[in-house]
Design brief:
This protein is α+β, with helices and mostly antiparallel strands. The chain has four domains: 164 residues, 2-Layer Sandwich (Herpes Virus-1); 34 residues; 158 residues, no CATH class; 265 residues, TolB, C-terminal domain (Neuraminidase), CATH 2.120.10. Helices cover 30% and strands 27% of the residues. The chain has a four-stranded antiparallel sheet, with no helix packed on it. Strands 12-13-14-15 form a four-stranded antiparallel sheet, with no helix packed on it. A four-stranded antiparallel sheet has the order 16-17-18-19, with no helix packed on it. β22 and β23 form a beta hairpin. α1 packs across α4.
């Protein structure tokens, strides 16, 4: 056999070992390999050690694949975890390759014959017929024996001295090579095995003919593994970033909880100080009264003592007139009158006590609300099984004809005048679909929901006229109060609770959430769209004139696209403008004729990027593509739409539209 062929086959053996017979966990050649149900193969010890780190796999009594996360049930889960993989065998291809090229192959470094004699002699040649490595002395002997004289013997270079096995011998018929593959039995066999045991099998082929297909499959497996490797690496990177963010968030929440606790403690201390001050004032007054009583009593004691002494002197006097005058004085009451008259004050403090309503205090402490932790689960949602009302997750079919499903009257008890729903958003809070609207006429934000099959609502009065609304989190919204130069944040439970009031340097009308920590807000007095942080500080101002032309005049409504751009509905220029957060104009929709906007108001973007805009004075809702091309009128006055304003998209193919005193709910689903 030529040296080049031997070297080539040895190189092939090395590549197979490195790329296909190596465990991706320990990066070593397979040691007792096992193939899981997903066809991924690992060392038994490696996959068991990995499984032991995953509680969900231990609970499921299964081996867990580190790549695809599929689980392989173990045959006897009662055994120790270390033995779970003992019964899991490798696929026959892997085992066959290991038998041929794995750790059990022959060593070409040392002479095979000398090794049998207990000696270690470096090999210099290889006999491809005997499948043995030979030293110089054994090579000469090999060439003298008549039966081996004509065998192909080649020199071994240092580069080809690798572990390799030229032939795989049958375990039953030890003098025969394994050359065939029974595809019916999925077993590699020798010719005698084929004759004896596989005569009735239909698919018995030479292994060599299947090698190209095996290589193709192994290459595909390698590509899949590399793809899974990249995906997992990316996912791990994201998870590391998430951990960093969560740790920062944890510290912030911890600080907020401690701050809320300190605030409550300060309130209690103020009440304590007030009670102590009142106690001191009352006690000082009471003790002062008691001291005055003591002084008055001491004076009376002194007077009574003097009177008694005068009577004693009269009794000892030799003059009868002295006795008579003293007697007359006692008869007239002059002696008692000399004493201090005891006059009771009105409102005089008699006793100070501290009455504590223990039950009321206990209830107050139980009702003390420092805050509430909300956990948002990152679950995979089945939109057919569970309603999800989120602007970015919906099944809105814009080709379908909208059907009016419900009408929500925003007028509630206590309203001073008719309702004016200007803007709307929809949230799912604790499993409850909640519609939140700004009522411009009644200076309030309102929520409407159904709980326990009963309709309910909540009203939060504000110090100004609310205009735009934007969802911040799954249970929080931000609302602009342009007249008061404020933005308020509101918690939706689904009842409404005011969280914070942010004073701004400008009067903002439109509002949209860009990221969890930034807002986009628009003003028409100093015409601009500003990027704000959650304290109201302007991070960046996008002015219409600084990038070529006055494109905005009255930007009253905003929304954020799925790509993070800002859509502006401008009443002054009668157009829709798409801006990047840096201020670049992506497109401007300003058409003529029947597709022109006359009075654009509310605007929203769907998860597919489509854009919906209300045209107030033309009583319609139009559909634009993500690039700003007109598609069609979704709703018109023929559908009963009158003066539409704000709108949003929710789950289950629903669209919510502010009109007059109501919010109309349409379905547009397949």
């Amino acid at each position: 056999m030529p040296l080049e062929l031997v070297s080539g086959e040895m190189a092939t053996s090395q590549k197979l070992t490195e790329h296909f017979l190596t465990c991706t966990i320990c990066t070593e050649v397979f040691d007792k390999p096992c193939t899981l149900v997903c066809n991924d193969t690992f060392c038994r010890k490696c996959v068991v050690n990995y499984t032991k780190t995953r509680p969900e796999a231990i609970s499921a009594k299964s081996l867990l694949c580190p790549f695809c996360r599929k689980m392989t049930k173990v045959s006897d889960p009662e055994r120790p975890v270390e033995e779970w993989a003992d019964d899991v065998k490798p696929i026959f291809i892997i085992q066959g390759l290991l038998d041929s090229f794995g750790r059990g192959s022959k060593d070409t470094t040392n002479c095979s014959y000398c090794k049998e004699e207990g000696e270690t002699t470096p090999a210099t040649s290889w006999c491809s017929v005997c499948d043995d490595a030979l030293c110089e002395r054994c090579t000469r002997m090999h060439q003298r024996i008549p039966s081996t004289r004509h065998h192909d013997v080649v020199d071994l270079s240092g580069e080809t001295r690798v572990k390799v096995k030229r032939k795989v011998m049958c375990k039953v018929h030890k003098d025969e090579n394994i050359k065939y593959l029974c595809k019916d039995c999925k077993t590699a066999v020798c010719q005698t095995c084929c004759t004896i045991h596989h005569r009735k099998c239909e698919l018995v082929v030479e292994i060599e003919s299947e090698i190209p297909a095996m290589k193709t499959e192994l290459k595909n497996n390698k590509e899949n593994l590399l793809k899974k490797h990249d995906e997992m690496k990316t996912n791990v990177g994201k998870q590391n970033s998430t951990i960093t963010e969560e740790l920062a968030l944890h510290l912030k929440i911890e600080s907020n909880i401690k701050s809320a606790s300190l605030t409550a403690i300060e309130v209690i201390k103020v009440k304590e100080q007030k009670l102590l001050s009142e106690l001191k004032e009352m006690s000082d007054r009471h003790i002062g009264q008691l001291k005055a009583d003591i002084k008055s009593g001491e004076m009376s004691v002194q007077m009574y003592q003097q009177q008694a002494e005068l009577i004693d002197q009269a009794l000892q006097s030799e003059c009868n007139m002295d006795v008579y005058e003293m007697y007359q004085g006692c008869e007239a009451g002059d002696v008692d009158a000399v004493g201090v008259v005891d006059v009771k004050e009105k409102g005089r403090i008699d006793r100070i006590t501290f009455r504590q309503d223990t039950d009321k205090l206990s209830r107050a402490l139980e009702d003390l609300h420092l805050g509430e932790l909300h956990v948002q689960h990152d679950d995979v949602l089945d939109l057919k099984a569970a309603p999800v009302l989120q602007d970015t997750i919906n099944v809105l079919d814009l080709k379908a004809a909208p059907v009016l499903q419900d009408t929500i009257d925003v007028r509630v008890a206590g309203d001073a005048c008719g309702g004016y729903p200007n803007d709307v958003t929809v949230l799912e809070v604790n499993g409850t679909d909640t519609v939140v609207v700004t009522d411009y006429n009644n200076n309030s934000v309102k929520s409407f929901y159904t709980r326990n099959s009963q309709p309910g609502h909540s009203k939060l009065s504000l110090e100004g006229d609310p205009w735009g609304i934007a969802r911040l989190k799954h249970n929080q919204v931000a609302v602009t109060l342009p007249g008061a130069s404020q933005i308020v944040t509101v918690e939706v439970n689904p009842d409404l609770v005011l969280l914070s009031t942010i004073t701004t340097s400008k009067q903002y009308w439109g509002i949209s959430s860009l990221t969890p920590s930034t807002l986009a807000a628009s003003s028409h007095y100093s015409v601009c769209v500003d990027i704000l942080d959650m304290s109201g500080h302007v991070l960046k101002s996008v002015c219409p004139g600084h990038r070529g032309g006055n494109i905005l005049q009255y930007p009253y409504f905003l929304c954020t696209t799925r790509t993070g751009n800002i859509l502006v509905s401008d009443i002054g220029t009668k157009c829709v403008v798409c801006l990047t957060p840096e201020g670049d104009v992506v497109f401007k929709y300003r058409r003529t004729g029947h597709i022109a906007l006359k009075d654009p108001r509310g605007i929203t973007s769907t998860s597919t990027g489509d854009i919906l805009v209300t045209d107030n004075s033309q009583h319609r809702v139009i559909h634009l593509t993500e690039s700003g091309q007109f598609v069609r009128n979704i709703l018109t006055s023929q559908d009963g739409v009158q003066y539409p304003c704000g709108l949003c998209v929710g789950g289950r193919g629903r669209m919510y539209l502010c009109t007059n005193n109501v919010v109309e709910v349409f379905t547009c689903c397949k």
